[in-house]
């Protein structure tokens, strides 16, 4: 029994060192471990399906169980050969920041309760806003991820442009837009009839002419167009919507322009990305997701808004039991800028990482991701067995195993079979997606620890599997 839920300093240190050792071993041994791991619900139910323990057991025993049946059963999204979906190539400083913020149990909701952390968040948000060329009026906050950032941004857009829910309001985005946008709209009460999914062009970018036609059509039918959501790097292909054109259209039409940069926005740190993302400095709101391409642990998203007062205007409510925290105008209460009142000190992860590595290291790390996708594309183009469907773009390349003699239906099937075999074998993790009705393979290469050999060997393995399946 330990009714104070507390330990001696020696006990705490001993347990803490065990945790640090686990993490360091994980990070150092990762490249030699399999990427994937599969167990059935029945196996795990057997291993973990116990009743709520009445008495405690030792820390060592818990760690042993974690090693054997919990952490041994995770796919490593931070593995240098994890190329599926969007990898999570976190970094150790971000991990330590999470540990510190949680150990000190920082309440990052109000200035009164954590002024130092509030200032760190303010500074970090400001650094990011500057990276994207947003004006001094811009502000934002850290949230749990890209989905929450998109939800926050769309709530602001609705408040500023419509003043609240509107039956007539319509919203526009391409068919390549991440599902979190549609989910956010659903949460905010928009119906399917209010959503305009504009077909993307050949390069998987939002078609601006089609957008303009749709806006005019809606206006003529008495609808109220109010918001366009642009992709600053789609999840499928890394395509960037024509941001500069969209800025012009939205300015002319008086629409809110939100950019979902959850995947691709950090490419601004590279020369190539800066060119592709031109126009991003003029959006009304921008989602970025540091737990993807800014190398932070999960639960680190960020929303930036061109005029920070718009966040406050949307979310600020002052109940009587919080009157004591309402400070001076210059003191930021981040709970007034978003959905969460009690919020953890997420900003510390990026602040410590930027300070420890310097932005120059981040520039190289991001550029490396772009280069790895180019290596993949070159490797694929050298072989007769592959068709490149979308070229290396913001760290993503899509392609198909498609020998000349193979017919369309078979090609679709083979891609899935290749992925299934890769998951079983564990050397690398790749995923499929669908582009214009065709199943394709996709590599996302943003891990700064991925090597050229990782890419080449992965493609070679997939090619071997494809040839074996097809018998060539
Ligand atoms: C473009 C884009 N937007 C939004 C999201 C959702 O982000 P999160 O998973 O952090 O909620 C993702 C996730 O992959 C994404 O790629």
From TrEMBL:
Highest taxon listed in the record's lineage: Bacteria
Cofactor(s) demanded: pyridoxal 5'-phosphate
Pfam families, sorted: Pyridoxal_deC (PF00282)
Listed transmembrane segments: none
Keywords: Aminotransferase, Decarboxylase, Lyase, Pyridoxal phosphate, Transferase
Keyword set includes Membrane: no
InterPro entries: Aromatic_deC, PyrdxlP-dep_de-COase, PyrdxlP-dep_Trfase, PyrdxlP-dep_Trfase_major, PyrdxlP-dep_Trfase_small
SUPFAM superfamilies from the UniProt entry: PLP-dependent transferases
Family: Belongs to the group II decarboxylase family.
Protein's name in the database: Aminotransferase class V-fold PLP-dependent enzyme
Protein species of origin: Polycladomyces zharkentensis
